[in-house]
Amino acid sequence: MWSDVPFEHPARFESVAMEAEKKQEIIEDLLTFSQSKDFYARIGKAWKRGYLLYGPPGTGKSTMIAAMANLLNYNVYDLELTAVKDNTELKKLLIEITGKSIIVIEHIDCSLDLTGHRMKKTEKETEDKNEEEKKENNLKDREGKGSSKVTLSGLLNFIDGLWSACGGERIIVFTTNYVEKLDPALIRSGRMDKHIELSYCKALMRKSPTEDVQKSISKLIQVLDEVKKEAATKKAEEESRVKHQPQ
């Protein structure tokens, strides 16, 4: 059910725009996870880790995923939930995923009905919704189209259910532009173990090689100017001493 496509994204952590300390923290976390097989076996937990990347559009969430994959040399499985028929098909996809992999669900806030907080509905609201759904389903049937029936419960089982331990080490990455819309059960510790915020401010910290070279040249010129001034001052002092020597 998965199709193989060569992964050749050039992103590396060296090019990710982020504070050096935070970047190093993420790198160390990833490397520690990849080398912790015995630890997970000892504590009786599946060898997996969840990362939630959140922030405004265009702040480098996809680039971060590529950098993670290149750092660990892991395969990337891009999962589009709206294309999955139901929870059973989702479980089959999980079983087929190999070890040393990163499972990516981008824009989780836009995927199916996973952003609600499971609020109670009145009987009338439920009846009205069911009636609308019947009409929509009938229309889709006539048009020959299907709809995904993956539920929040099915996704939670996908992340840390019984079958989540199959296939060796795995990293699960969610991305979202609106973390506040997500159901708390989806992003709690144990499912999304590390939350990483990406913002425009951090993106502005990127330095190009040209900028670094220009700064180095400017600094070198400044040092040379100081050396010239110091040499000129010494020469002037020597000339002054010569003039004031007795004849």
Automatic annotation (TrEMBL):
Indicate whether Mitochondrion appears among the record's keywords.
Answer: no
Q: Identify which cofactors the protein needs according to its UniProt entry.
A: Mg(2+)
Keywords carried by this UniProt record: ATP-binding, Magnesium, Nucleotide-binding
Pfam families noted in UniProt: AAA (PF00004)
Domain AAA+ ATPase, residue spans:
47-202
Q: Which residues form the signal peptide?
A: none
Q: From the UniProt entry, list the residue stretches annotated as the region Disordered.
A: 119-146
Q: Does the keyword Cell inner membrane apply?
A: no
Instruction: Give one GO molecular function term.
Output: ATP binding
Output the SUPFAM superfamilies linked to this UniProt entry. Answer: P-loop containing nucleoside triphosphate hydrolases
Which InterPro entries does the UniProt entry name for this protein?
Answer: AAA+_ATPase (IPR003593), ATPase_AAA_core (IPR003959), ATPase_AAA_CS (IPR003960), Mitochondrial_chaperone_BCS1 (IPR050747), P-loop_NTPase (IPR027417)
Q: Which reaction does it catalyse?
A: ATP + H2O = ADP + phosphate + H(+)
Q: Where is the composition biased (Basic and acidic residues)?
A: 122-146
Question: To which protein family does this belong?
Answer: Belongs to the AAA ATPase family. BCS1 subfamily.
Q: Provide the protein name.
A: AAA+ ATPase domain-containing protein
Organism placement in taxonomy: Eukaryota, Viridiplantae, Streptophyta, Embryophyta, Tracheophyta
